[in-house]
Amino acid sequence: MGCPNQCVFCNQRSISGCREFHESDVKMMIEQSLATVEDGAEVEIAFFGGSFTGIDRDLMCRLLELAEGYVRAGSVSAIRLSTRPDYISEEILSILARYSVRTVELGIQSLSDKVLTASGRGHSAEQARNACRMVRKAGFSLVGQMMIGLPASTEDDEIATAAEICSLGASAARIYPTVVFYDTPLYTMMQNGEYTPLDVASAAKRSAAALRELIKNDVPCIRIGLCASEDLLSAETVAQGPNHPAMGELVWNEFYYEEIKRLLADKHLLGESAELFVNQTELSKVIGHRRSNLIRIERETGTKLKVRGRADVKGMILAKGTETSGRSTKPCI
């Protein structure tokens, strides 16, 4: 709801998994979800799946009032919502400020005007920048949502977008590789040879480049890839593109693969035997699916690498023999 615009990539019913909305269902959905939450867990009510600040004002306020009741009761800590940059205004922000809205997520997608135009976004990069500034000035946490592989987009455009999301004050970001859904203008463009979707490997590489920019600026990436719902994995919904159920894992694998290569080169250990220490929580991401990163490193550089997890390590520490030489990457997210 709330979005009359037709971006070329969007089939909102497929993306949200919801084909209709009934206000009367909301309380039941919240109650059912709260019943699954463990005591003491921090919980938010999130209005996602459309442009929340673009829906009918009375409906928006009724939904916020309903959510606010759960905040007052102590069942949830805050409210968050997603919307478009051109559906942010002083009036809207003043309404949100009456309630316990903590976080506003903006579907920025790209901060390149050529990409926004080719994608039929309906707003400019400067409008998106201004919306980010307004959200931050009003005291809300900002989350920037960006896309990889949009029409006319390059890896440099995506790195620049990630960098700007950071500089505009985002406290977190999401990265979504572009997937081609049926019944969208993008599907028609693909059929006409006007658009070629990224394959999984290319999407992982380009997403990792954007992720690197976020990490460099200490901005957590809280989601990579579309949610692996039944609809989004269905061949009846997705025509083509990198809709991999483990896209986030593939991107993190690619990120660490590049970081390991840089670290080995920095310490002049390419082609040698070396040992890498990482935090235990990041071990599987560093090693890669079925040891893919270690296999790639050995095949491409001749380096025999062992990776060990340690609870006291932040970043990565590289060792050869009894000597340790560290290049501390940003703490992992």
Brief sketch in words of this structure:
The chain is α/β, with parallel strands linked by helices and 333 residues long. It has 13 helices and 12 strands.
Q: Count every helix, treating DSSP H or I runs of 4 or more residues as helices.
A: 13
Strand order of the largest sheet: 1-2-3-4-5-7
Question: Which fold does the CATH topology of the largest domain refer to?
Answer: pyruvate-formate lyase- activating enzyme
How many distinct folded domains?
2
Low-pLDDT stretches are 321-333
What is the percentage of strand-forming residues? 15-25%
Identify the overall geometry. Answer: globular
CATH architecture of the largest domain: Alpha-Beta Horseshoe
How is the main sheet built?
6 strands, parallel
CATH superfamily of the largest domain: tm_1862 like domain
Overall mean pLDDT score? Answer: 91
State the separation between the terminal residues, measured CA to CA: 33 Å
How many strand units? 12
The assigned structural class equals alpha/beta
Pattern of helices and strands:
HHEHEHEHHEHEEHHEHEHEHHEEE
Helix content: 25-40%
The CATH top-level class label of the largest domain:
Alpha Beta
- CA gyration radius, whole angstroms: 22 Å
Describe this structure in words.
This protein has about 325 residues and is of the alpha/beta class. The protein has 2 domains: about 10-245, tm_1862 like domain (pyruvate-formate lyase- activating enzyme); about 265-325, no CATH class. It has helices spanning about 10-15, 25-35, 55-70, 90-95, 115-120, 125-135, 155-165, 185-190, 200-215, 230-235, 245-265, 285, 290-300, and strands spanning about 45, 80-85, 100-110, 140-150, 170-175, 180, 220-225, 240, 275-280, 305-310, 315-320, 325. A 6-stranded parallel beta sheet has the order 1-2-3-4-5-7. Strand 4, helix 7 and strand 5 form a beta-alpha-beta unit. The longest helix has 20 residues, at about 245-265. The protein is globular and about 65 Å long.
